[in-house]
Every structure is written in C-alpha cells, then in structure tokens.
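Dear Dr. V.,

Thank you for agreeing to look over these. As mentioned in my earlier message, I'm a first-year student in the group and I'm still getting used to reading structure tokens, so any feedback on how I've presented them would be very welcome. I ran two proteins. I've put each sequence directly above its structure. The first is here:
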Amino acid sequence: MIEYVKPNSHIIIQLRRWNTVAGPVEVTAETFEEEVLRSEVPVVVDFWAAWCAPCRMVAPVMEQLAEEYAGRVKVAKVDVDAEPELAGRFGVSSIPTIAFFEPNEQPKAVVGALPKAALEEAFGLKRFSDRAA
C-alpha cells in the first residue's frame, strides 16, 4: 500500500501496489512463487536476457500486454542470466520463451519473438480482455 499526501492538504490517497504497476513485473527466484504461482490472475512470463536481440523485440509486446490486460492478466519478466535456476526449473533452453501460468492449469509456453496477436491466440488471452463479451 502506498500513501500519498497532497501538499497543503489533509487528504490522503491510498493506492494498492497492483494498481500502480504500469508494465511487466521483474521476478526473481525469491518472488516467483508469490508473483506467479500464487497469483490470483493468470500470468504471462517472459524468460529473457539483455544480450538477446529477439528478447528486445518482445519487450514492447510485453508492455502492450501488461497495459491492455492490467488487472486481469499479470505480465512478468525473468532474466535467465540472473535467475538460471528458474529457467532450469521450467525447462527453458531457448529465449525468448514466453510462458502462461493460469491458476489450477498446467503452464503453457511458446518460444521465439512472436507478435502480440500470436501470443493472445496461443494462450487464449482474448477471454480476459475487457472487450470480451
């Protein structure tokens, strides 16, 4: 919880952390279980590395997904160089690997720099859209 006190005012505005996250959440081995496995909403996880050109191509797509599905699907990023145990745990041998973790379901994954529409189709993300009927 973040509190913001407006200068020269007695008004306190409280913001919940999940409402203030504008883009993908950086996840580590220490935070993976809480941020991904225990998440109340589905999570798209981008396994990436700074030196990986296709990973850099996927980054704007992850930002778009985070913005478009905010509050309905979480987007997270795992730096495989900093967190090799997480990559190994989920069998990530090529990057970018984009995985989808949905509560009570087996994770799904795709490999490569795929466009937003392909990721939405692969994981059925449209059902979480605010435009879904």
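The second protein is here, in the same arrangement:
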Amino acid sequence: MGGHLHTESGSCGDPTGAEQYPANPVDWQTFVNKPWARTSELSCPPESADYQADPLDIAKPKP
C-alpha cells in the first residue's frame, strides 16, 4: 500500500455531498474499515517512500 489518495465530495463538485463514481472494469478499489484498529494486519511504508503518482498508472511515479 503506497502513496496516498484522498478525495472529498466538495472538491469533486458534487453539491449533494455524496461521492459517486462509475464502475471501473479494469482496476479494483478496496475499502478498509478502521485501518488504525488493524495495525497487526496492515502495514504501510514510511512516508519517505511516498511519491507523486503518474495519473495514468498510479503504481508508477509521475514522469
């Protein structure tokens, strides 16, 4: 689990406050409920390992 991506409905221009996205047939998205309570199951690299992701392939650094 590397990099961080956070969106808020207000920043996406959604006046209802409910984010909605079309289905993505290519990539999977996973929601982890209360990750701070699951430290024995989850681990993240140090923040020094973060990088700005390529928007076309978030697994790679931005060119």
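From my reading of the second output: The mean pLDDT is 74. The chain has no helices and two strands. Does that match how you would interpret it?

Kind regards,
E.
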